Amino acid sequence: MFLKSLLRKQSFRAKLYQVLLLISLSLGLAYLFSNTMQNMHQRGIQGGFGFLFDPAGFDISESWIEFNSDESYAKAFLVGLINTIKVSLISIMTCTALGILLGLGRFQENPLIKLICYLYTEFFRNIPLLIQLLIWYVLMVEWLPDSQSPIQISFLNFNFFLSKDGFAFPWFNDLVTGYAFVSPEFIDSNITGGATLSPEFMALYIGLSIYTSAFIGELVRAGLLAINKGQIEAGLSLGMTQQQVTKLIVMPQALRVIIPPLTNQYLNLIKNSSLAVAIGYPDLVNISNTALNQTGHALECVFIIMAIYLVLSLLTSWLMNTYNNRVMLRG
Amino acid sequence: MDKENPQVNERPGAQKATESINVASSQSNNSIIGATTLQRKQSHPSFASNSTKLWAVLIRSLFGNPLKIISTLVGLGICILLIPPFIEWGIVSAVFSADPVACQEARGIGACWGVIVEKYPLILWGRFPYAQQWRPQLSTALLLVLIVRSSLNRVTFTQLCAEWFCILGLIFVLMSGYLGPLEFLRNSVLTPLFGQPFTVVSTDLWGGLPLTLMLSFVCIVLASPLAVFLALGRQSQLPIFSVLSKTYIELLRGVPLISVLFMASYMFPLLLPSGYSPDVLIRVVLGISLFAAAYLAEIVRAGLQAIPKGQLEAADSLGLGYWQTQYLVVLPQALKIVIPGMMNSFIAIFKDTSLITIVSLYELTGSLSLALNGDALWRPFKLEGYLFITLIYFVFCFSMSRYSLWLEKRLNHS
């Protein structure tokens, strides 16, 4: 009798459901955990992150910090993380610029530009990124000339070289006399000086930038469409110039609409950089995949990837939210 | 100006009817423009002068001012840089027959579409036994017919579910050759019927287009209800439900799909009791569904938030319980609002299925590598192969996005 009246009470039922959910969830997790322990015991896998300090035993083809195969897995993961951040940052900058151009292009009166922007957006949005990356990679390593006869682009005194070995460009070099800005030179069928980006990096960078720019272009377009045309006309009739209208009326309002979904696109780009594993760019996922196959620490490696990407995502959203707060409506 | 006034241009009939009103009373900006458009149209009644006007507009918009001239030149430059070389490579100098010697000669100058002529069964149908390939073909055809049929929405929901259930069952039987209690039919009926033994085909031999389609479809079907529950959980008044749903959604949205797939292929076997490990295909389907559900949940949540609070209160005062309120009042409206977002996510899921090639399943992308990597004769012509599957993916994704637009328009009208 008492139980019946208690069950009829909504607040009690609410608590009951929640307690039941918690209990079933913890039971489920405990079950999975015990299974894992048992399985690992059976397969003779030692759990824990101790393996991070063992020597990695593999080389990494490109890295901003010194790395050789005697160094620890932990450092290998760090190299991977830096590579992930490197390609993500550069791609984010490029895709933003391209996306803005695309979005603006859709508003041009010029039908040719409009058509090109439309085709670009629809084409690159509707093809899986993985295939785009594979195509760029094939183009990079099979279609470009050999490193003996690279494509040379000279601008002022600076040389750029594009070949199967990657893209060489002027950069700071550690010379005997100290750091200096050096342009690469093609001497004795070898490119010396400057810095070189590997074909893997180039494929990933181009693929990510182009794929994401198609989405950003649509965002920019939506942001600009959200602005009432009357406001622009009002601004013009007040005697403002086109630039003033853009700066004072269009941009502040468009940014408000664009920034939140733009954050999502940046997050997607960072997560998509994990597709590097398919073309062999040594990013975080690629390196932990190698580590996983070498050590068998599946649980730990997957945990590391997820934890680092979560932190990266949170960091990016925090940065973008800070920026968003600046452009948001006050009051 | 008339181009930027879609309201008028889209409905010429309505425009004629309101013509006199528009001219007489110039109340709103729109009607003034409408009237001027009409006048312009009337002053050029004949087709010829209309087309000259079109040319004038075109030329003005292409070369109207210096900026336009520059942008036109840039656009033309892009076209000239891209189109003629592509036509030269892809059509003029291309080899269309499956002739490796001719392909080898044309390498670098022309495309070798022969590779597709030669390899398309392997690319499209994967490693399925060659003699049995009518089975994946029939499955794909059934799936496509069913998708088109349900998109057109000529049938009721219950009927649709029943059809899907039957056809998916049939496709499963076709692909796997698993007959269950009807095993006795295999030798007595099916083998004479098809003129060849109806063998059991294990899932690791499934591949190509049917795998891509089935995987996307099954993942969407599994993820959608889960997403609705997650979204409801996130919006729930009960703190533990909302915190748990929020944690789940944010966690899965924060990690890349690849890590979830790694988890599915390496960690699921560890999580389950030893000796019992489901098929890799099932693990991958579960992984993608759990991942996609988090994204879909956020979209559904947007729809839930768009329902005015008064409706919930009205449902409450009518004495509807929580589930009744959600099922009868909130969800029908919320889901209708979020259809475009859902379609975008479905397209994303379809594209994401290409990732399973990284955990060694041979869907369209994987079966292409399978077809070309093992064959030294055709291996150099990967690019052509990629372009072929690009086309397939594009056709599917583009038609999905067009369908979503069409659906949106239709729902807005009704």
Describe this structure in words.
The complex is a heterodimer of chains A (331) and B (414). With 331 residues, chain A is of the alpha+beta class. Chain A has helices at 2-8, 10-43, 73-105, 111-125, 129-143, 199-225, 229-237, 242-272, 276-279, 284-295, 298-327; strands spanning 151-155, 158-163, 166-169, 171-175, 178-182, 185-187, 190-192, 195-197. Helices cover 66% and strands 10% of the residues of chain A. Chain A has two domains: 73-137 and 200-327, MetI-like (MetI-like fold), CATH 1.10.3720.10; 151-199, no CATH class. In chain A, strand 2 and strand 3 (166-169) form a beta hairpin. In chain A, helix 3 (73-105) crosses helix 6. Chain B folds into three domains: 2-62, no CATH class; 71-112; 118-413, MetI-like (MetI-like fold). Chain B has 20 helices and no strands. Chain B starts with 5 loop residues before the first helix and ends with a helix. Classes of the chains: A alpha+beta (331), B mainly alpha (414). At the A-B interface, helix 2, helix 4, helix 5, helix 8 and helix 10 of A face helix 5, helix 6, helix 13, helix 14 and helix 18 of B.
Secondary structure blueprint with pairings:
The complex is a heterodimer of chains A (331) and B (414).
Chain A (H helix, E strand, L loop, with lengths): L1 H7 L1 H34 L29 H33 L5 H15 L3 H15 L7 E5 L2 E6 L2 E4 L1 E5 L2 E5 L2 E3 L2 E3 L2 E3 L1 H27 L3 H9 L4 H31 L3 H4 L4 H12 L2 H30 L4
Antiparallel strand pairs in A: 1-2, 2-3, 3-8, 4-5, 6-7
Chain B lengths: L5 H5 L1 H6 L1 H6 L4 H15 L3 H17 L2 H27 L7 H7 L7 H12 L8 H19 L4 H20 L8 H10 L13 H27 L4 H15 L3 H15 L8 H26 L3 H9 L4 H16 L1 H14 L11 H10 L8 H32 L1
Helix pairs in contact in B: 8-12, 8-19, 9-10, 9-12, 12-13, 12-15, 12-18, 12-19, 13-15, 14-15, 15-17, 15-18, 16-17, 18-20, 19-20
